[in-house]
């Protein structure tokens, strides 16, 4: 991984059940062992986690390839990698 390119954690999104009003911290570097969420693995690198607060309770598809254009949600970019 270069300093400015995130690691591809997996080439498929992560389906997560979220709770309305709860804030989640999406991993932007791709190194977290708690995908799709941050575990602090980015420390010392150029990436920081992105806060996402759920507006409704239900299923959401979080990006795991880390190259989506609609962070933190999947937009299908992984199909082109």
UniProtKB/TrEMBL annotation:
Transmembrane as a keyword of this entry, yes or no, is no
Q: Tell me which SMART domains the record gives.
A: ZnF_CDGSH (SM00704)
Span of domain Iron-binding zinc finger CDGSH type: 11-48, 49-80
Q: Which Pfam families match?
A: zf-CDGSH
Keywords assigned: 2Fe-2S, Iron, Iron-sulfur, Metal-binding
Q: At the top level of its lineage, which domain of life is listed?
A: Bacteria
Keyword Repressor on this protein? no
Instruction: Enumerate the InterPro entries for this protein.
Output: CISD, FeS-contain_CDGSH-typ, MitoNEET_CISD
What is the protein name for this chain? Iron-binding zinc finger CDGSH type domain-containing protein
């Amino acid at each position: 991984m270069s300093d400015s390119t995130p690691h591809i954690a997996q080439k498929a999104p992560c389906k997560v059940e979220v709770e309305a009003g709860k804030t989640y911290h999406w991993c932007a570097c791709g190194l977290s062992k708690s995908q799709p969420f941050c575990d602090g693995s980015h420390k010392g690198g150029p990436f920081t986690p992105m806060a996402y607060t759920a507006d409704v309770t239900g299923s959401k598809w979080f990006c795991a390839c880390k190259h989506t254009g609609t962070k933190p949600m999947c937009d299908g970019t992984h199909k082109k990698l």
